[in-house]
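Input chain follows. Return structure tokens only.
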Amino acid sequence: MGLTVQRTAVLALVGALAVTAGCSGVMDGTTATPEVTDTAAWTPTESAASSTATGATGTARTATARATATAPSFLDQHIARLRAAGNVTVRTTTEQTVSNGDQSVTQTQSRDVQIDFESGRVLSKFEPLAGDGRERYRNASGATFTRLGGDSFLGPERSEELGTETYAGIVAGDADALERNGTGRVDGVSGTVYTVDSIAAAGEGYSNLDPENVTAFEVTYVVDDEGYVSYQRVNVTFAAEGRTVTYSSRRRFVDVGATTVPRPDWVSEARAVAARPDPDDVVTRTYETTGEDGRVELDVTATAGELDDTAALGPEVSENPLFRNDLLNRYRAGEIAQYYFLLDTVESVTIRVHYDDAAVDDANESKLRLVTRNVTTRELVPVNSTVDTASDTVSVTFTSEAALDRHQGKTFLAVRWSQYRSAVAELLGESDDGDGSRTAPRVGTD
């Protein structure tokens, strides 16, 4: 099995390590040995070279100077000191290499986070080992918005929550295992240097690794004079499924007290996306069209996902001559249209025809009925419609499965029904009992 195939499980394991330890990113410098400056308080008796460089195992070194009860307070006070400063920028870079004999694959990732503890605003920009990058923004109200890649957005309901402390932490292990290495510079960052070279003392962040498989481990902290960690470096080498994995993380805390968190331009678009319903949500949308005789509308209640994916929706003005004869035109009000709502998840539809109030006298306005053609009998039949004289509309709502199936794609028009029936009866030499129960005249031939 080739390295490309073999590395999948290992990369997943290291990815889990990066997330668990809070050390996501791409390495932005070389791995440097701390340049230790002796102090009056402590004289080192041993080199501060990294365990990776010296080939040390996961066993902690015996140090002549261990952290005292007060010295390692940065482990507990780190975030509190950052909060006291008000804001910070956290830059994390990670590099991981999977080796199999003379073959190796190296991947990198990075994350920059700007945090304002006082306002609660946070902006995180993440470039992963593979795939598109991700940005998240937390506003002062605590709502998180996400941008995936270039043009995909998530609102607060679907975004992973971003807190002010989510990426502000450090590897917090056993304080008694800390080794103080004096003041100096590590990878260009100055401060008091502490190290831990036992994975067992590094806390729960690395509990997913079997110490027996770890061949090198070291966490280096550079502590600022203000009591927070200004730099954290993690180096781990371990064996997994016959391969060697080298993991290196660098986390810097910069612009402490001088960081501002901008509101990204894309947040407005993310807000618009957040306002949209979930694809499985049942929603009602209105579709409309306008013809020479006015506007017609179709309200459809169905799942948002199906409504988004279906193009054959809404009313369409009908020019069918069956419905545009002189007799019907004389008693018709509003436009003639077909209504399409062929959906699996449709729950109800409302058909609404707007009419010109001036074209219908008050005495006949309340007698308007929506009618459609029965294709079997070829007759116009009224439906149980309602007239709204305030909005000048005639409408009908269908909710049963049988009614929805029967009226899908049908043509509807608003007619002064009783007057139309009387006119037809007169033309045919028939009498009309006026109760609307007699058989309606046939319209057209099939």
